[in-house]
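One chain shown below:
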Amino acid sequence: MYKKFTISLISILIILIIVEIFLRTFVIKPWKNISKNDPLVFKSDPVLGWKANKGTFNFLPVHKTGRKFNMSFNQNGERKSNIDNSNIKKEILIIGGSFVQGWGVNDDETFSFKLQNKFPKYKIYNFGQGGYGSVQSLLILKEQISKTKSPKLVIYGLIQHHEYRNIAHPGWLRMLSQYSSRGHVYTPYAVINENNQLFLKKPIGYSNFLFKDKSSIITLVEKAYMKLSSRKRIYIKSKLGEEKKQQTIVTKKIILQMKEISENNGSDFILVNLDWKGSFKIENYRKFFEKNKIKFIDCSLPSSKKFIIPGDYHPNKNAHTKYKDCMSNYLNDNNVLSF
């Protein structure tokens, strides 16, 4: 009996070793955190998941052909404009993710900074945060709009990946966990119930299986577990029993809430597409914008070296200038900021 047990145990171990070698070679490597030696930009927030720390942070180039850059933030996580406009009564709030925040470019190179120079009669707040989706942008809008004097305008910068972030897609949670050295791990998300109502959920993160950094098998099992456990928030069942992805439905409902909150506070609301051309099927949203009278600007740019930070996917200073031109032209042509 003991001999049979020993032989079975050895056989299982041999099989596991073979499977481990196969997975490492052809399928997946053991879990590994990604550290780029970046400064700790973000601090934990129980509602938002994370928010930028106050201070100035200096970054090394992402790529050997890139350049250093600095990012400065105020106490509330707002990207600094470095302009003394504390006496200005009219305000503009800009919300969104890293494209809005200006990840990868200096403080004076973001489109919000450039808009501030273009419209000096307005105080512009850049509340964009690296990694934010529509859910966090909505939450920070709720948090900040009541603290402002008299916001004239709210601008939300949308990219396609916000859809995945809004439902806490397991692939997104995995990426956040891998880049946890920057300070963001847990993210809030949203779901739709059977009555088509939107619910915001508290921040969650990727699972943390023991020894996943040692074994490809455990890493793969964890990945499969996250995929299965997230299915209910990725798909929604219709009354007919059909399943469909709810990420776009969630995003549209969040945008409607952004518009409602803005208008209830006496502000215009404008949605801006900042994504690369061809990567986001914005046509799926146009009828929705028209039906709900949502002001929309398509500022998407070609995905070319001219507009992208080397070794990254974020827009460079040239892209931010184009964003500024696109938005300022719309604001001027439509008299959005007229007193």
